Amino acid sequence: xxxxxxxVRGFQGExxxxxxxxxxxxxxxxxxxxxxxxxxxxxTTDMSEQTLRGVFLPPFKAAxxxxxxxxxxxxxxxxxxxxxxxxKLLTDILRGEWGFEGFxxxxxxxxxxxxxxxxxxxxxxAARLAFNAxxxxxxxxxxxxxxxxxLVASGEVSMGRLDEAVRRVLTTKAAxxxxxxxxxxxxxxxEKAVVGSRDxxxxxxxxxxxxxxxxxxxxxxxxLNKSQKIALVGPFADDVDNVWGPWTIxxxxxxxxxxxxxxxxxxxxxxxxxxxxxxxxxxxxxxGIEEAVRAAEGADVIVLAIGESQKMSGEAQSRTEIVVxxxxxxxxxxxxxxxxxxxxxLRNGRALALEGNVKNAQAVVxxxxxxxxxxxxxxxxxxxxxxxxxxxxxxxxxxxGQQPYSYDHKNTGRPANPDLPxxxxxxxxxxxxxxxxxxxxxxxxxxxxxxxxxxxxSDQLPWNGTLDVAVTVTNRGAxxxxxxxxxxxHDRVAxxxxxxxxxxxxxxxxxxxxxxxxxxxxxxxxxxxxIGEDGAYRIEPGLFDLWLAPHAQGGSxxxxxxxGPA
Length: 566
Known about the structure:
This protein is of the alpha/beta class. It folds into three domains: 2-175, Alpha-Beta Barrel (TIM Barrel), CATH 3.20.20; 198-382, Glycoside hydrolase family 3 C-terminal domain (Rossmann fold, 3-Layer(aba) Sandwich), CATH 3.40.50; 449-562, Immunoglobulins (Immunoglobulin-like), CATH 2.60.40.10. It has helices at residues 2-12, 49-56, 58-65, 87-97, 123-133, 143-154, 159-175, 188-194, 198-209, 259-266, 288-297, 326-336, 356-360, 374-382; strands at 26-30, 70-73, 77-78, 81-82, 103-105, 213-217, 230-233, 273-276, 301-307, 342-347, 363-366, 396-397, 436-438, 449-451, 455-456, 460-461, 467-475, 481-491, 502-511, 516-523, 530-531, 537-538, 542-549, 558-562. Strands 6-11-10-9-7-8 form a six-stranded mixed β-sheet, with helices on both faces. Strand 3 (77-78) and strand 4 form a beta hairpin. Helix 1 runs parallel beside helix 3 (58-65), helix 5 (123-133) packs across helix 6 and helix 10 (259-266) packs across helix 14. It is globular. The relative contact order is 0.08.
């Protein structure tokens, strides 16, 4: 919810939509698109009203509350009704319950796809269903242009509904100042001055390095010494075609920075870096591994730049096995056979199931697709100019077959003990525990941050009051650290079963070597509720667990009791 609201504010700004730097935000895709069965793009979604309202709708509500004036309907059907034909979603909830005043736009031909869903008979029927459900604007298909005149003439679409949709679009355009300046944002002189400016380049680099997640750093291998001999190996070693990530359309190729360029710029002697691709992303290279071995033989440390191409992480690129492709694994195995310190730089757009010598490397870093300044941003972190500070927004499972995996799963009636390798008749797979290899919220720093016990002002939270909780974190390492302290709760007994943990708040603190800081939170009863069987938010008194921890599988729980109303 916080992220949704922050993105809306980031796009639309604080000065109003008519400000020349404002861009209209569109929240998408409403709704439950990310819960498609089997993780297959465009697939169906089937879920309870409690899960829909408790998990998937709140970020859209947060976006609306933050001032978002555009919502995009989803491709998927939800409980049998395609989202782009759902009056419940796009009118009853969005407008009737939330008071949304903007417009709804279909996803790319999603209203036309009501036909393939088996929900509409033909294009005319699809236009009628989508428009009456609340889709104000048709994207690409042309169905509204073709059929709305006859639908209105026949009375199947009311003139009032048509006026309503037109009014919403025109009102939003007026808010954007487009009637005063219809070509706002197309100032060629301003474009040349702003796009690619030094401020933008610096911000891109900063955003990149603040997105790097350090998963593993045995024996403090990182940060690397700038004077070391380094072999940079892998399909992304000198690659610039996969720095932007999916859905970058108007990037400037001349500004893309490869890892090789970033490393050479950061190293004391740029010639101390040897580079070899060794493998393609999904196919081997003739003689590639042999070339990589030669490049790495004289190095002090091997840095492997491996993972997914941006195409592999794009739309309609669902994978049955979320692993590093086999040709790259063969390259990793060849590098591991050299018995040198090894750093893995993962380029990926999804959680990966790490295996073999990738998993066993001394250091593992998630670098995602960081944009045009990727090479410099990664080098900033790898060589210690800036410490890693990001955390995982998604859990990395032990095995691909655990997907879909989320940190907030329920305990079940037969919860598995994660500390036991084998346990009969429990909720787990035969091959692994019901945990993540690297859980939601996880991320290391170059410091050594230690958590003290949870401190609570009381073990009771009054129905109309608050509860102050705190934890002291100490950096016992030799490097400065940015720690993200996370507050999780678990409702032990409720009228509907609850997740084992739920993130409720977080705070970021900076710690110098040797520094301690007490991080405080104030908890209120409103944070402890859930969606009941009747679809309404409810808060129930009772016993709760609370963690102040570095990630969703960390820390020791404290307990408090929410006291019911008098």
